[in-house]
Design goal:
mainly alpha, 8 helices, about 65% helix, about 0% strand
Length: about 150
């Protein structure tokens, strides 16, 4: 009798893993179908953990990194609350977005090189220490507006 129960438990465990894997694959397909999503560029695979704790940055830095990953910061989104037009970069006349500030703006290139040298958002949040990103934003004078 015990052998039957053991086999049954194993079967339930395997079934649970299969169902969980199937659900995750459906979610991933839906996520991939959206595509043009700010967060999709940073987190293409669901289930990845992007939170890098323990680097001494504290809660404020962790909150700032989360806002940057999602692309929703006061600096880039406040125009929505103020019912204004989306702001443009004063240096290159591009839309002022998190991606533009962190990766694209040629006016920030020299400052950016002091802190990191990645060229895409995916690698930025995986390879660069959050304290370096925060330092870059502080150097630009925009960290408090995140």
């Amino acid at each position: 009798m015990k052998r039957y129960r053991t086999e049954r438990r194993i079967a339930r465990c395997i079934a649970r893993q299969n169902v969980s894997g199937y659900i995750n694959s459906v979610w991933q397909k839906n996520w991939d179908a959206e595509g043009a999503n700010k967060l999709h560029e940073v987190l293409p695979n669901l289930g990845e953990d992007l939170h890098r704790r323990g680097d001494g940055g504290g809660r404020k830095q962790e909150t700032a990194m989360c806002r940057l990953r999602v692309g929703h910061t006061w600096l880039t989104q406040s125009y929505l609350l103020k019912n204004e037009e989306q702001p443009f970069c004063y240096a290159c006349d591009s839309l002022y977005t998190v991606r533009h500030i962190l990766i694209e703006c040629p006016d920030f290139q020299d400052t950016r090189k002091k802190y990191f040298s990645v060229t895409d958002m995916y690698r930025l949040f995986r390879e660069v220490n959050p304290s370096r990103i925060a330092g870059y934003l502080k150097d630009l004078g925009v960290y408090g507006k995140i």
